[in-house]
Amino acid sequence: MGKGGSISDKEWERFLRDAEAGTPGAPEEPSARARNVARLPRDESGRSQGWRTYQPARRRPGKGWYVVGLLFAVALLVVALIPGKVMGWFGGDDGTPLAAESERPGQPPAAVAAQRPTLSEPFRGSPAAQWSDGAAGINLPAARATGWMSQVQVAHALDQSRDFLVSSSLDSGVLRGERPAKAIALINPRQEDIQKYLATAFRTPSRENDPRLLFSRFEKSKVRLVGDVVKTRGRITFREGKRGAVEVTADVTYVYPVARAEAGSEDVERTIVRRETVMSWDDPAKVITEPGTFSLLSYKADITNGGCTTFTGYFTPSFGGGQSSTGDSEVDPYDRSASMDARMRDADAAGCDIATRS
Questions:
Q1: d(CA 141, CA 342)
Q2: Residue pair 357/269 in contact by the 8 Å Cβ criterion
Q3: What is the dihedral of CA 48, 52, 53, 54, to 10 degrees?
Q4: Which end of the chain is more exposed for a tag (fewer CB within 10 A), N or C?
């Protein structure tokens, strides 16, 4: 990270005068390239309990068993050569967490038996049952010298990027509706458009200024989390960005089991959020920044059962199959095989698609 303290008001005013006068070499003020409104698919919970079941085809008698033996041998060879990839395809049924996600998977998780979540098993019937818990499900790459940063500095930037994800999407206080102060403190305070967005989003949330694009919060008077585990799956990558910055991209899916806040409520649902956040760790010699903070380049969110047309600043999940199924297209909220750009392009115009599972 760069050395030095905060920029004084006097220095800031001098910079503005130099910038207006066209002084060469003046640091640039950062701005976000894009901010995408969340896509909010509905959970199609009105379907019958058997809609995810699978009935195997009847086996015809008289087939040669040598074919079965050959296929079995091929399967063993595939498992031996690429065990991690096979686990990503099919998962397992013993509760063992999947290997960390080091690249985008080639297809969605396999279907699992349709089972309702319970207070004691909040991830039952979900692919997330085999995902890792909390920060353990966010895979970090090996650091290397990039742009203006040394290998050690890149490693620190990656750790701080994951700290932002933990503070914004996994912190127990934030999940109960508290202001995400630790996460906000990691965002460059000199990035004026983002600071304006944050102020507006928490004061008067709307579709255009929705804090849920970056932060996971539930209104504790209405919703409580079931247990103390949030399942996660995703990865962080990095590259050299503009002006030698280290550009860090986080693509992570979070699964939150929730119930109504009132005592005795046993109806468990899940809110599923996939976020892509692009953070720029800028060279302070070229961009106006504060030490230990990053500039937001873009952020996107794909939210299932978090409130389709309600923008209160909190997730507002539905319980008991109360959501209607009026969306034009279907989406699997556990499918990480498509890029977030593709997910956003495929989003229903009204922002309310149908989730095929929860």
A1: 24
A2: no
A3: 140
A4: N
Residue with the two structure tokens 């005013």: 13
In the chain, the DSSP E strands lie at 34-35, 42-43, 132-133, 138-139, 223-225, 231-240, 246-260, 268-281, 295-304, 330-331, 354-355
pLDDT of 238 reads 98
Q: Are 250 and 234 in contact (CB under 8 A)?
A: yes
Report the candidate in 177, 140, 168 with the shortest Cα–Cα distance to residue 155. Answer: 140
Q: How many helices (H) and strands (E) does the chain have?
A: 8, 11
Cβ neighbours of 100 (radius 10 Å): 15
How many other CB atoms sit within 10 Å of the CB of residue 45? 20
Q: Encode pLDDT of 218-267 as tens digits.
A: 999 999 999 999 999 999 999 999 999 999 999 999 999 999 999 889 99
Q: Report residue 252 as tokens.
A: 């992570």
CB-CB contact of 14 with 288 (8 Å) = no
Q: 193 in helix, strand or coil? A: helix
Number of residues assigned to the chain: 358
**CA 262/CA 219 separation, integer angstroms:** 12
